[in-house]
Amino acid sequence: MRLRKKGQMGIGTLIIFISIILVAAIAAAVLLGTGSSLQQRALTTGKQTEREVTAALNVVTIAATDGSDSDIENFEILVKLAAGSDPIALDNLIITFDTKNTSQHLEYSSATGFTGNSTNFAVEYIKSGPEHKDGYISRGDIAKITFSSTRSIEESEVIRIRMVPKHGVVMPIDIVTPDVMTTQRVILYP
User: Fold this and answer.
1) Would the N or C end of the chain have less CB density within 10 A of its end CB?
2) What is 57-189's CATH number, 2.20.25, 3.10.450, 2.60.40, 3.40.50?
3) Exposed, middle or buried: residue 101 (CB in 10 Å: 0-12, 13-18, 19+)?
């Protein structure tokens, strides 16, 4: 009779051992699935972050015209792509132009011969780079962005210009117009 009791205890131990192995296998599968999911999210987030960081514009100069009457209305921004940046589609670029009393949101207009107005900006390529493509600012391109203010900007007035690409770094520039403006062309930045 003693042999039977030992056999029953052995089967019970075997069942408990098998159930522990099954629970461990299920836990391992859940951990592997979660790890894989987190890895996919991390890769996606990394790619999005890389795209956000690697698209930026450098502002070379900002000038305004018609300053001979002590105020300015028409603006020109000379830009180029920042080092290591991916090309920026002009259709995906918004320029905000804020003064003490007004705010404008300007979008790209590809109309030929268009020089910009108070709702759209125009782009003229001053220099085309080796990877030039119309409607984009690519490596080696130098572009002149032109637009008009909805009102005359006076002397000693604060202006904030932000270039907001769909993907990439927002470029904020704060400017104070000169104390005295008497020339046709007024350099505002740098």
Assistant:
1) N
2) 2.60.40
3) exposed
For 130-166, write each residue's pLDDT tens digit: 989 999 999 999 999 999 999 999 999 999 999 988 8
Burial of 111 from C-beta contacts in 10 A (0-12 / 13-18 / 19+):
exposed
Rounded to 5°, angle at Cα 11 from 6 and 12: 95
Beta-bridged to residue 74, according to DSSP, are 65, 148
Residue type at position 33 = G
* Residues 175/62, Cβ–Cβ less than 8 Å: yes
pTM for the whole thing?
Answer: 0.71
